[in-house]
Amino acid sequence: MNVPPRPNDLASFWMPFTANRQFKKAPRMFVAADGMHYTTDDGRKVLDGTAGLWCCNAGHNRPKIVEAIRQQAGELDYAPAFQMGHPKAFEFANRVTAIAPEGFDHVFFTNSGSESVDTALKMALAYHRVRGEAQRVRLIGRERGYHGINFGGMSVGGIAGNRKMFGVMLPGVDHIRHTHDLARNAFTRGEPEFGVEFADELERVCALHDPSTIAAVIVEPMAGSTGVLIPPKGYLQRLREICDKHGILLIFDEVITGFGRLGTPFASDRFGVKPDLFTAAKGLTNGVVPMGAVFTTSKIHDAFMTGPEHLIEFAHGYTYSANPIACAAGLGTLDTYAEDGLLTRGAELESYWADALHSLKGLPHVIDLRNLGLIGAIELEPIAGQPTKRAFDIFLDAYQSGILIRTTGDIIALSPPLIIEKAQIDELFGKLAEVLKRAA
Ligand SMILES: Cc1ncc(COP(=O)(O)O)c(C=O)c1O
């Protein structure tokens, strides 16, 4: 006999990237969100210090986005993505490439950051093949990189804990070293002075494998999920130079950095370095409807546009690529960003934000503070023999104190909606300081 599910039973849902047993003993539930705040099921307001998961850049419950979704659902709920189109897909592609850095005239839609990464890797491999360089099959990532959780992204990713359970992954992948250097760069405001030479690791990898076998290098221009590693001054330029020298494509994973997070529309605008392809997701639709994207240049796109016209040029895509409701959400998001000036608001607030973050220097267990745009990280000394425990306990205490923060390892990462006001920055860091002072 079937036993009917118990109402509000928490057992069935196997939660992603969550300590399931801990959560289900003491659940943390959001039931509503508006502006800068979540509301919990016990009626408390929690200040969103993380824009959800780095995605709600315009804050929550934004009328233009809500209305666009409502209207679209009643007008055209779904259209096949293969061999058929709908106007909002083209409108959104035009609007979003218009704010992309110059030269990125083409966009391929996916449903997440992970899918965007795998799409970009496949595009890079296929690009070389269609041009007659089919021997370029290797992909190079970076230690501590996060490129989502699908097999391609996991393989080029470099967070050991995300890889160790899942076998040998893609062949032909190698990694350059990460850029974290506490000894030389701790407590730097903005881009660290030291570490441009870490990019030269790419030459070592090229020498080892023969550069003519390498298809692409993928990095986050600023590594987010591993705990906010800001690129050292000149590092990305150096990577670009080495890629150019060897005919290797450079892919930036802008899933976190896209759409204003660093005070410019994209990280490549801020750093003045252009990749060949870049990924986006999260802020693309303000996190409201799942959607991702890969942006690329005419040079890459046009290389595929050969052969008989009835043939599919790139055998890749998803049932929900350019889903009408996602496109509508994206259009509402771009309108909201434009109206509120959010793609550059991070630059206006950056120095206030940095002052607030760096005021935590000297508090117990704090061994580094890092910032760029509206991102901040607080690195903590781990409890001996219990890595991640200190930061996790701080996360729980912060939640009880009315602020949502995110931890990865023993690093706290902050990335609020770009609508944050100065008083809310004060509140976020004021409450966090109290939590840090009482942390074990
Ligand atoms: C740089 C980067 N790439 C890819 C992803 C994966 O995105 P998703 O969780 O939407 O698959 C993330 C998610 O945090 C990310 O930060």
UniProtKB/TrEMBL annotation:
Q: Which UniProt keywords apply?
A: Aminotransferase, Pyridoxal phosphate, Transferase
The biological processes this protein is annotated with in GO are:
biotin biosynthetic process
Q: Name one Pfam family in it.
A: Aminotran_3
**CDD domains xref list:** OAT_like (cd00610)
Molecular-function annotations in GO: adenosylmethionine-8-amino-7-oxononanoate transaminase activity; pyridoxal phosphate binding
Any coiled-coil ranges, and where?
none
Q: Which cofactor does it need?
A: pyridoxal 5'-phosphate
Signal peptide feature range: none
User: What's the superkingdom here?
Assistant: Bacteria
Q: Which family does it belong to?
A: Belongs to the class-III pyridoxal-phosphate-dependent aminotransferase family.
* PANTHER family documented for this protein: ADENOSYLMETHIONINE-8-AMINO-7-OXONONANOATE AMINOTRANSFERASE (PTHR42684), BETA-ALANINE--PYRUVATE AMINOTRANSFERASE (PTHR42684:SF1)
Q: What is this protein called?
A: Aspartate aminotransferase family protein
